Amino acid sequence: MQSIPFRKVHGSKNDFLLIDENNLSQSLNPSMRKKLAQSLCNRTKGIGSDGILFIQKSKHCDGKMEIYNADGTVAAMCGNGLRCAGRYIMEQVGKEKIVVETMKADLSVQKYGDEDSIPFIQVEISPISFDPATLPFHTDQKQVINEKIPGLSDTLLFTAVSVPNPHLLSIVSKKVLLSDELFRIASYVNGKNPYFPDGVNVSFIYPLKEGEIFVRTYERGVGFTNACGTAMSAASIVTILNGLHQYEKPLTVYNPGGYVKTIVHNDSGTLSVDLIGNATYCFDGNVNVNFESDSFDWVKERTYEEERAYSLLENKAKEAFSSL
Questions:
Q1: Catalytic residue positions?
Q2: Residues comprising the binding site for substrate?
Q3: Domain limits of the chain?
Q4: What share of the chain is helix, strand, coil (3-state, %, to 5)?
Q5: Rounded to whole angstroms, how far apart are CA atoms 317 and 257?
Q6: What is the rounded average pLDDT for all residues in the chain?
Q7: d(Cα 266, Cα 269) in Å, to the nearest integer?
């Protein structure tokens, strides 16, 4: 039986268990991390979350983040998770700006300031590519931007982009946003299909007033989530490519769990995104795990008051959603 302390956190209600491996008496291997994700993230039999953020030492950065989805698969990147992990690492090392090692890149994280009395964290989202091979996406085209994909929809135009995890996005009408189309398409491309062998995150974008959009996401390995940071980053790029916003200008991105701000940069054709949003602590706990029998029990040890303050910000998102 191994004792593992954890912290429940969320970014835009995209919730995670944060486990600092530096504090464990016994190191974890990939098989253990997979079992923890599959067991603890279960919202019926476990603690419940969209994934687990494993914090580790880095040889060249202030810390390292490894992300496991609720189904036990490894995610290349998670913007909401990076904000939460980044806040935690900043507090551990006593800095207001750090660099975090992730699977595909070393990314900058810094304190941004308060929004509605809630501390916001700014993280870098990169690298970004439209090369289908980076998703991977089986197609003969060099890139897919605002194009139909046979078998997915007769009317919707899709853009495929990696940020660096794979995303498929479409700007839609209010009617389509509120329909079952997202579930139908996402279920197809995350099952056996000719296009995406590893599955793909799928998002619908609905433009609100100038400088504001609403994004709904079906996350690969998770399902519908309150928010997906990389999806909101990718949606910001697609919004600009459609002439609905500009580079270097803040964009407010609403989602079912809250909102973030994004700024898309274009440096001679190389894109990156600043993702700015909350990184909220919910509670601390401890789980006792028997990896041989796949059994565990857990206890909540400390509750944070941050969630109460976040509810005010969450109401803004609910108002945006209810106005659709």
A1: 78, 228
A2: 14, 69, 79-80, 165, 201, 219-220, 229-230
A3: 2-112+280-322, 132-278
A4: 25, 40, 35
A5: 7
A6: 95
A7: 6
The structure tokens 């009408």 sit at 173
Does residue 94 come out as left (phi exceeding 0), alpha (psi in the -120 to 50 range) or beta? left
Q: Note the Cα 84 to chain centre separation in Å.
A: 11
SS (H, E, C) 67-103: EEECCCCEECCCHHHHHHHHHHHHHHHCCCEEEEECC
Q: What is the mean pLDDT of residues 104-133?
A: 94
φ/ψ of 175, rounded to 5, equals -60, -45
* Overall fold of domain 2-112+280-322: Diaminopimelate Epimerase; Chain A, domain 1 (3.10.310)
Rounded Cα distance, 134 and 154, in Å? 26
Looking at 3.90.1210.10, 3.10.310.10, 3.40.1160.10, 3.30.930.10, the CATH number of the domain 132-278 comes to 3.10.310.10
Q: Yes or no: say if 121 and 109 are a contact pair by the CB < 8 Å rule.
A: yes
Longest dimension (CA), the chain: 56
* Binding site per annotation, positions: 14, 69, 79-80, 165, 201, 219-220, 229-230
pTM passes above 0.85: yes
Rg (CA), the chain: 19
Q: What is the pLDDT of residue 313?
A: 76
Pairing of strands 97-101, 159-162: unpaired
What is the DSSP code string of 131-160?
Answer: -GGGTT---SSS--SSB--TTT-SS--BEE
Confirm if 100 and 107 have CB atoms less than 8 A apart: yes
Q: How far is CA 145 from CA 131, 142, 151, 161, in A?
A: 11, 10, 17, 9
Nearest to 231 by CA among 136, 128, 113: 128
The mean pLDDT of 198-215, rounded to a whole number, is 96
Q: What is the enclosing helix (H) or strand (E) of 320?
A: helix 306-322
Local confidence band at 324 (pLDDT 50, 70, 90 cut-offs) = low
Task: Judge whether 198 and 165 are in contact, CB under 8 Å.
Answer: no
